[in-house]
Amino acid sequence: MKKKTLAYMLSVAMALTVWAAPAQVLADTAGTEEGPSNLGSESDMAVEEESTATEDTEKQEIKKMKLTCVMKSTTSVKVSWKKVSGADGYRIYRKTGNDGDTKRIKTFGSSKTNFTNKGLKSGKNHFYTIEAYEKDTEGNKVVTGASDTVKVFTPKKLTQSTKGFKNTNAGKIISVAKTKLGCAYVSGGSGPNVFDCSGFVYWVYKKAGVAGATVKRTSAAGLYSSLKKHAVSRSLSKAQPGDIVLFGSGGGIRHAAIYYGNDKLIHASTGSTGVCITGTSWSGGQSGVVAILRLPNLR
Predict the structure, then answer these.
(1) Which contiguous run of DSSP H or E holds residue 65?
(2) Are 277 and 260 in contact (CB under 8 A)?
(3) Are 286 and 243 in contact (CB under 8 A)?
(4) Residue 119's Cα: distance from chain center in Å?
(5) Adjacent-strand bridge partners of 61
(6) Pick from 219, 234, 237, 210: which is nearest to 295 by CA?
(7) So what's the pLDDT on residue 2?
(8) 137-165 pLDDT tens trace
(9) Quick one: 174 exposed, middle or buried, by C-beta within 10 A (0-12, 13-18, 19+)?
């Protein structure tokens, strides 16, 4: 009886052990699932770190671009930049005035490195930025380069004391004209070392090479006939450096000069003075100003 009872008790104990095992497995499994829900598995954390590293890499791929903006006249600015390796094109943005809206004004292909923004408002600040982009496999434009904002001011009136004057188109005209100071006045002369009045104007404009500002080799009267649509005034108070000033006498146009600025002219004056700088009160036997001409890209 005792042997039977002992065997029976052993079998019951074994059965209890077998049934207890699944409960322990379930308890262990539950503990394992709860951990990732609160802390995240090592594999998930590795994926997150990789994603963050990728975002940082993408940010680093946007290259810093240098944008140069130069005022060329009271209504134009030249915008220049260096090519970005791998770029498919560039987009230029501008805001006029402190309270203006930023607008995309031009999009260019990869070969372009500058353009002149014309028709601007004078007496205003203009703010420029540029982006370089590449096209992805779906044709979307992805920004790969960007510049800081550059401010440039276009004055209402240009003078030789205007900041950046030497870089303007008018500054180029004056710079070329000054290289011929002291050259002789000879009737019919058009350079490079002897000039009459209209010949001097012709040579200076041709040498300066300002796009759109073309002067034919003709007389002072011929200058007026071909360029009168560019007349801006007859008052020297309205003149700006680089303007062509025409003087008349006896109902005709007899003399051509270039306005130097500061109430002065630079011109092939007379046989006794040659190419010189004089005051605007100079008359050379002429009765007064007939027209002041301001050619394209000097406005």
Answers:
(1) strand 63-65
(2) yes
(3) no
(4) 14
(5) none
(6) 210
(7) 46
(8) 999 999 999 999 999 999 999 999 999 99
(9) buried
CA angle 170, 175, 177 (to 5 degrees): 95
Please say whether the beta carbons of 77 and 69 come within 8 A: yes
Token pair, residue 75, equals 């209504």
Looking at 148-259, which runs of residues are DSSP E strands? 150-154, 184-185, 194-195, 231-233, 244-249, 252-259
**pLDDT per residue over 157-201, tens digit each?**
999 999 999 999 999 999 999 999 999 999 999 999 999 999 999
Whole-number Å distance between alpha carbons of 85 and 107: 17
Q: Which tens digit of pLDDT belongs to each residue from 92-129?
A: 999 999 999 999 999 999 999 999 999 999 999 999 99
Stated length of the chain: 299
CB half-sphere exposure, 46, CA atoms < 13 A: 3
SS (H, E, C) 104-132: EEEEEECCCCEEEECCCCCCEEEEEEEEE
Tokens representing 154 are 């276009």
